[in-house]
UniProtKB/TrEMBL annotation:
Classification via InterPro entries: DppA_N, Peptidase_M55, Peptidase_M55_sf
Record protein name field: Peptidase M55
Native source organism of the sequence: Candidatus Marsarchaeota G2 archaeon ECH_B_2
Gene3D superfamilies per record: Dipeptide transport protein (3.40.50.10780)
Annotated TM spans: none
Signal sequence coordinates: none
Length: 276
């Protein structure tokens, strides 16, 4: 019997996406790109099923996390939709999965890729002192469960950045970024094949790829946009404020480090939109 595949799907790296208007609910073009996001995910599902997988879990990992159209999703997959998920973009991953794949991912904050960032509300995110991406942090969470990440889709920078840290990784480049807000895009009928092929190869190598591990203790350091956000994040014990805008958390294992990081980031972000 085939194994289980976990898919975390973001939106900035989806086929054709170049603008913030493409990925924000209610904005021009958002509805179009929900279809294309669902198609990119379906292409990966088709690839892994063809390679012998028997079960796929998809986690909608962008914004309000209700982007993927369930009625258009491949029926062999189940979908985690919605927010308030402790593992956020990696909710639902556990040791029962043979591998994890990232669809529609983007490059890190400061990167040259389309809509580059690293977890909204933070800038300059460092993992063990080195600039990191959502892909690397999420690969670390999967790695803590013993699950290797074997495939990613996005623009050329999203793919090359993650290859650099993970090493053995299948990449599906669906567009070539010119700037953070422009790209040379490949037609959906072709990216469908590119993603499917990469996912097929990614599933075939699941058993030979090592789960990603970060050196313990794991330290995550990041900068908020405003000092009041960092000050509020530092209300939490175990959160060190390094300077007016920068905080740091540290833990012996990846899941605890993630939980501290995420709690601090959410608490800091709660300042946004308040006026007093
Ligand atoms: Zn996103």
């Amino acid at each position: 019997m085939g194994g289980k595949v976990y898919i975390s799907a973001d939106m900035e790296g989806v086929t054709g996406v170049v603008s913030i208007d493409d990925v924000l609910a209610g904005h021009l073009n958002y509805e179009r790109f929900r279809h294309l996001m669902t198609q990119d995910v379906n292409s990966a599902i088709e690839g892994v099923l063809e390679a012998g997988a028997s079960e796929v879990l998809v986690n909608d990992s962008h914004g309000g996390m209700t982007n993927i159209l369930l009625e258009e999703l491949h029926p062999s997959a189940t979908l985690i939709s919605g927010v308030n998920k402790p593992l956020y973009m990696m909710e639902g991953v556990d040791k029962s999965f043979e591998c994890a794949m990232f669809i529609g991912y983007h490059s890190m904050v400061g990167g040259r890729g389309v809509l580059s960032h690293t977890f909204s509300g933070a800038s300059c995110v460092l993992l063990n002192g080195r600039p990191t991406s959502e892909g690397e942090v999420n690969a670390m969470i999967a790695g803590a469960m013993g699950v290797p990440v074997t495939m990613v889709s996005g623009d050329q920078h999203a793919v090359s950045e993650l290859k650099e840290v993970l090493g053995d990784l299948e990449g599906a480049v669906v567009k070539y970024a010119i700037d953070r807000s422009s790209a040379r895009c490949i037609h959906p009928s072709l990216t469908k094949q590119i993603i499917k092929e990469a996912a097929r190869r990614g599933y075939m190598k699941a058993r030979s790829v090592k789960p990603y591990t970060a050196r313990s203790p794991i330290t995550l350091e990041f900068e908020f946009l405003q000092p009041s956000m960092a000050a509020r994040a530092a209300y939490l014990p175990f959160v060190d404020q390094l300077d007016p805008r920068t905080v740091r958390v540290s833990a012996p294992d990846p899941i605890s480090a993630w939980r501290l990081f995420w709690s601090a980031l959410l608490l800091g972000r709660s300042v946004e939109g308040e006026s007093y």
